[in-house]
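User: Sorry, what's this?
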Amino acid sequence: MQTTELKDKNVLVLGLGRSGMAAATLLSRDGAHVVVRDEDDGEALQERARLLRQLGVRVELGNRFDNSTRFDLAVLSPGIRPERPIVKELAKKKTPVLSELELAYRFCLCPIVAVTGTNGKTTTTELITAMLQTCEKRVIAAGNIGYALSDAAEQSAGLDALVVEVSSFQLEKIERFKPDIGVWLNLTPDHLDRHITMEEYARAKARLFMNQTPQDTAIVSTQALDWAHKVGCEFRGRLIRISATGQQADLWLDAEDGQTIWCWLPECRGIVMRMDETSLRGVHNAENIMATIAAGIAMGLPVRGIRDAIIAYCPQAHRCEFVAEINGVTYINDSKATNVDAVEKALHSLRGSVILIAGGRDKDLDFTLLKETIARKVKLAVLIGETREKLAAAWGDVVPCVPADSMANAVQTAREMARPGDTVLLSPACASFDMFQNYEHRGDEFKRQVLALL
């Protein structure tokens, strides 16, 4: 998109979250006539609205919309469901709708590495960014990681690369978006309240590769590759396969020792590194590390620099984050685990008995898929949020389940039941929005309650 393409056009931005704010700002600076609509009208949105109005943007909050306006284009924030009336109204008027990801991409002036998958997106985005920085490249991490791509796009002319965390919601409304390197880590049940079936979810993820050319690279786990084939996804560029489960691939984790990462690409043949050289644990993190190595190789980075960056990396907050050890009991914050697969991986990474704090807002997931792991690893489940009864019904015949009406109550119950050598793990398997602003707020509250025990 040339920066004059939207000049003097009427553009509607739906949603005034971080990505909506960034999209509206980008469009306004490009000369478009911008209207932002959000069905909420809370204090935070009022402040954002005030800032946008200073740029000449019209902001309509709380369902007080002027539906007489005709728009040349609409930009959809990832949190806005397509079935919402605010979106259906656009379909009636045949207004073209793009995601914020697509809009921002059209302003990007540097190579893009895009990372998707059910789990591991943020860790892998951070790892690839750290790797590029270690190799003295100018890089910004953006997208679903918290810094909107529309903000980063304005700085892209001076960068060697943008590393973008991409969700299935963002990929639903792309047209031209094309990463130079696309990474698909895995696909397990999640967001089925929106995608309905796993096949639909897989098709959304597979859109990451739909515009790639033979000059581009696709890095795909063997598990995700099976889904790609099921939904007819074609890879036009170089395909690099990774496997943490012993399957044949270009990079794989040794199934016998669970530590050694092997590579069989022309640029690097043999052992690359061992998991115990890093601060990351678990098979799921081996997948993230292999994706990072593959991306580095595809970009022509030196193997020494790739290794150094991965070894130096420290996991960020809310992802199996150590909080404290109190009276021999370890407290772990895994608030970012908002689906069944993430919880299973967290449990497998721990030794000893676990008291699991879980629950929140349901995403139509099948919690019985965790029963076998719960039976082997968990001695007590402390259940919070809207899914308390559903979780108890799913797990109650294999583990004692007790309800808690607050995070403070949950942590206190866990403390009373824990014995030296146990781990208290917050790994909710659910969204956070029933009790908290987001998963960060939930994790922070867990940490606050744990540290109050000291």
